[in-house]
Design a protein that fits this description.
The protein has 6 helices and no strands.
């Protein structure tokens, strides 16, 4: 688990991103119904994994990996439809996140506390990925009048996310 990419990369789950429980709210919505439904379920799966007892932790991580892979496949299908310009970077962020979580699976059996320390960083990673990667994708979906988009404030949310990121770097 020490081979994770440096802190601050949006695709990695770094050691400095532990945070309190992140609850779903309208602020997390992208305005793309399929993405929002998937993200809501994913956030629930993240918390179910974090809350799992040691005996079921490995199984929960496996379920979470499957949920993440499905979410990422949906997003990547949207990118394929749009000929999305930053598709390569977004896909790379997905790969890094899956690889980091896959490291927790064997550790969950030998050292559940260590695996849990990685898992507790997932909500903050989720928030960072949503703001840096998924909101721009939602803006692209919205601007193409994709059938799953709805008139929303995705552009405003993207601007808000950028402002929040700038404040965090000060």
């Amino acid at each position: 688990m020490d081979s994770l990419p440096p802190p601050g990369e949006t695709g990695a789950i770094d050691k400095e991103t532990a945070m309190q429980r992140l609850e779903w709210s309208a602020l997390l919505e992208t305005g793309v119904a399929e993405m929002d439904a998937s993200h809501r379920a994913l956030l629930q799966a993240i918390h179910a994994t974090i809350d799992a007892d040691d005996g079921s932790l490995g199984a929960r991580i496996t379920e979470l990996l499957a949920a993440l892979a499905a979410d990422f496949a949906e997003e990547e299908a949207l990118m394929d439809q749009l000929y999305y310009p930053t598709e390569h970077e977004h896909r790379a962020a997905h790969r890094r996140a899956l690889e980091a979580l896959q490291h927790a699976l064997p550790v969950a059996h030998s050292d559940p506390a260590e695996a849990r320390s990685l898992l507790e960083r997932l909500p903050r990673w989720f928030l960072g990925h949503l703001s840096a990667m998924d909101l721009p994708l939602a803006v692209a979906v919205e601007s193409t009048s994709h059938p799953h988009s709805q008139p929303s404030s995705a552009r405003l949310r993207q601007q808000l996310a950028q402002l929040l990121q700038e404040q965090q770097s000060i």
